Amino acid sequence: MTDRVVKLTGMVPDHLKVRQTKLVIESLEVPTDIGFHDFEVGSPQRLHVSVELWLDDNAPPPDDNPDMAWNYDFLRDEVIRLATERRYNLQETLVHAIFQRIAACRGVEAIRVRSVKPDVYPDVSAVGVEIASFKGITP
Fold first, then answer.
1. What residues make up the domain containing 59?
2. Which of 6, 66, 77, 114 is the most exposed place for a label (fewest CB within 10 A)?
3. What is the average per-residue pLDDT within 111-121?
4. How far is CA 17 from CA 12, 94, 102, 109, in A?
5. What average pLDDT does range 42-59 have in this prediction?
6. Structural domain total, the chain
């Protein structure tokens, strides 16, 4: 018995074609020296960072080639690097740094970056900031 790849090219109706491709890093936990209160300075806090990228090319990488795809390791490593290479007074500053770094990459059509501190208030699940390159829920 031989393995056959069934190609369904041309079978999907136009109204169902892929119109958007989004990559996600969801709630990456990073210990970060962040905050401006005396008790925060020098005491790393847990941050949960999420990044959503909409790509300008909706086609899958040719021949299932990982070298032609976005590298999640790169995305994760850049968030960790930016969150740990210095101290921040504000989440806004960190989120903008992540945004600037990732938005400058090849193929990014739209981006949203979110950071939350889960341990600030006992009666709140998290406090944070989110920025995006578009208005509304999605681009």
1. 14-132
2. 6
3. 96
4. 7, 36, 27, 18
5. 92
6. 1
In a domain, 106, yes or no: yes
Angle of helix 91-103 relative to helix 72-84, nearest 10 degrees, comes to 150
**Contact, 82 vs 10, CB < 8 A?**
no
Higher-pLDDT residue of 43, 121: 121
Average pLDDT (84-92) is: 94
DSSP H helical ranges for 23-106: 72-84, 91-103
DSSP code, position 14: G
Q: Does 90 have pLDDT greater than 70?
A: yes
**Residues 91, 130: contact at Cβ < 8 Å?**
no
Q: CATH number for the domain including 24?
A: 3.30.1130.10
Task: Evaluate whether residue 31 is within a structural domain.
Answer: yes
Give the pLDDT confidence score for residue 74 in this predicted structure.
95
Q: Is residue 47 part of a domain?
A: yes
pTM: 0.86
